[in-house]
Every structure is written in structure tokens, then in C-alpha cells.
Design a protein that fits this description.
mainly alpha
């Protein structure tokens, strides 16, 4: 069993907590690991666990104190004892013990995402109930849309982390399952790819529908946020995350037992467009990171071995018949080859609404000599 898996089994969340923000009234939720209940005969010594929960609407942070008893927990928002907190245990009976044997991420995740999104748009047009925001078919389409976007985020981010060590480093500092690990030098010597493997396993544990967490990963590892800046767009996405939870875990009912009534066709289309825009920007950033890495690799030849650029220039410069004009031409082509790798990727037009899809630059496209 991998060390990430062992750590996760020991620290995995086992309860959901929820409360309404004392500042703005928005519903705040978090998945936490509760401290152990007191054993029979064990006295309460006043120990308690602490969780920090952030409100996604007003950005206020709240200290949640979880006090174990013999049969249940006392949960309160520090400084706001009047705020009611619900605390619900998880059911891990259906847990897949072989999660660390999952396959590698799919290549070209954006192309897969775009094709799936086109199919989803077609289903929305054919099946979506335009007269009701509480229709079960709309909730079904809503959950499916989230699954499409989750799969894209997972494949895009995990795939990049597998390719780029500079991306893996901040991920190690971001995910708790990795920051607390300690390994021996002998373990590292036996597996040079240890960090890569452990990062992959840890990322496979991430719930990519948790857009706030994925936004933190993107900020720290890629240098760009996932969530859009406009407040109305962020509010829509925050609401979508909460509504997804209601659909998946409560069959479309909120905590008060009321059926969601605002999952309209127009709302679903708007959400899909936000997902499309977020995926496009993330793919573009991933392309830039991949391109920069290739450029660095291309020009990182050792002192004993000249790079292809130096070889090309030397071959021309040392040839007696080389004219000044020819030398300038070679210099220009070399500069263009390098710049070509840094430019915005060539794009092809997708069949749906002229959506541009990034395509990778092949080695043949930058071979100028």
C-alpha cells in the first residue's frame, strides 16, 4: 500500500458539517475528520478538534470546534454559539479500495471535453424541460454536466503534473496528504519517480467538483486561478457546487427538504458556457507551460554537447562560401523557430459555434533547416 493511501485512510474525512455564515447568511459546508469519540469510562478533559471553514460568498473564515463525547459530538462556530451546525457521518461502505490502481489520465483532455460538451448540448436541446426548474431530467443533465467538467479537470491537471516537475513541487506543498509525508533516502533511491507517483495518487483523491480546492491548486501550481473574477460568475459557480451536492446526495432536495426549483434550461446553458470558458483558459495555460518546458529542454544541452542551434549556426559560419546575407538568414530562421514555440498554439475550428481548440505544435512545424 502506498504511503499516500496509508495517510489518507488515517486522515480521510468522515463527517460533513454545514452551517449558515453568521456574516452573510450563505450556506457553508466542509468535509472533515472528527476526533475519536470518548471510550467508555474515559473522562472528558475538554479536548476538541478545530476546523477552519471559509464562506465562498463573503470570504469570511470561521473556526469550528468539534468536541467529542461518548456517543456524539458537540459542534459550534467559535464566537457564535447561536449558529446551528449540522454534523453528519459519512458512509464508506461502497469505498473502492483499489483507487491507487486507477489508469493514467487521458491524453488531449480538452478535445474529449469539447466532444462530450457538444453531445451534452444536444441532449439539453432534446430532453431539457424548458417549462420547469424542478424537473428531474434537468437535474440529471446538471449532474452529467458536472461529471464532464470534473473528468476534464482531473485529466488536465494530473496529466500536466505527471509531465512537469515544476508543477509537482507546489502541489506537494498544497495537498495535506503530501505535505506531511516523510520518506527515507533509501526509498527515494529505489524509486526515482517516487514524487511523481505520490503526486498522481494524491491528485486521484481530489474531488474535482470542489471548485474552491481546484482553484487553490491552479493558483499555486499553475499561477492562474480556475474561477473567473466577476462576482456574478463566481456566485453562479458556488451555487452550482452546492446544488450538485443536493442532487447527488439528497435527490435534488436542499437541507430543508425543498426540491431545487431553479435548475432551468437557461441556467444549465449558462453554467455550461462558464465551464467551457474555464476549460479553454486552463488548456491555454497548460499549453504555455508545456511549450516553455520544451524550449528549456531544447536549449539545455550540456557543456560537452552543443545544442542544435549552435551546430546549425556553426555549420554555416565555418563554411568559407557563406555570405553575410546567408548568415543573417540563418540567424533569422533560428530566432523564428524559437519564437514559434512560444506563440499561441495553432488552432482549428470546431464544428460547434466556431469553438477554437488548441492543437499541439509538431516537431515538423518548427524544423527550419
Amino acid at each position: 500500500m502506498g504511503s499516500v493511501k496509508e495517510h489518507w485512510l488515517e486522515t480521510r474525512p468522515d463527517h460533513d458539517l454545514a452551517f449558515f455564515c453568521p456574516k452573510c447568511g450563505y450556506r457553508c459546508e466542509a468535509s472533515v475528520k472528527a476526533p475519536d469519540l470518548l471510550q467508555y469510562g474515559e473522562e472528558d478533559e475538554g479536548d476538541y478538534g478545530v476546523e477552519i471553514v471559509e464562506c465562498m460568498r463573503c470570504d469570511a473564515t470561521w473556526r469550528i470546534e468539534i468536541t467529542p463525547g461518548h456517543e456524539s459530538y458537540g459542534v459550534a462556530v467559535a464566537g457564535h454559539p447561536e449558529t446551528e451546525v449540522t454534523f453528519t457521518a459519512f458512509d464508506w461502505s461502497s469505498y473502492d479500495e483499489d483507487w491507487d490502481e486507477l489508469p493514467e489520465p487521458e491524453p488531449q483532455p480538452h478535445d474529449i471535453f469539447q466532444e462530450a460538451l457538444k453531445d451534452w448540448w444536444a441532449l439539453l436541446g432534446k430532453l431539457g424541460d424548458k417549462d420547469s426548474g424542478a424537473a428531474s431530467v434537468n437535474r440529471m443533465l446538471f449532474v452529467q454536466l458536472f461529471s464532464i467538467f470534473e473528468a476534464y479537470l482531473s485529466d488536465e491537471i494530473i496529466g500536466l503534473a505527471m509531465r512537469d516537475s515544476d508543477v509537482r513541487k507546489p502541489i506537494v506543498k498544497t495537498l495535506p496528504a503530501l505535505t506531511k509525508q516523510a520518506v527515507s533516502l533509501s526509498t527515494v533511491a529505489e524509486n526515482p519517480d517516487l514524487v511523481r507517483d505520490e503526486v498522481r495518487k494524491a491528485l486521484q483523491l481530489v474531488s474535482f467538483h470542489n471548485l474552491a480546492l481546484v482553484n487553490t491548486i491552479c493558483n499555486n501550481a499553475l499561477g492562474v486561478p480556475l474561477l473567473p473574477k466577476p462576482k456574478d460568475a463566481r456566485d453562479l459557480l458556488v451555487k452550482a457546487v452546492n446544488s450538485r451536492h443536493d442532487c447527488v446526495h439528497r435527490n435534488g432536495n436542499d437541507v430543508d427538504g425543498k426540491v431545487l426549483s431553479d435548475v432551468t434550461v437557461d441556467w444549465l446553458m449558462s453554467l455550461s458556457k462558464h465551464f467551457e470558458s474555464m476549460a479553454r483558459l486552463l488548456t491555454s495555460k497548460v499549453f504555455d507551460i508545456d511549450t516553455d518546458r520544451r524550449v528549456r529542454t531544447m536549449f539545455s544541452a550540456s557543456a560537452e554537447t552543443s545544442s542544435w542551434r549552435n551546430l546549425a549556426l556553426s555549420a554555416v559560419w565555418l563554411k568559407p562560401s557563406t555570405t553575410r546575407q546567408r548568415r543573417e538568414e540563418v540567424s533569422m530562421r533560428t530566432a523564428n523557430a524559437t519564437e514559434g514555440l512560444r506563440r499561441t498554439p495553432p488552432r482549428r475550428q470546431d464544428s460547434h459555434q466556431g469553438f477554437p481548440v488548441a492543437s499541439m505544435v509538431s516537431s515538423d512545424q518548427v524544423r527550419h533547416f
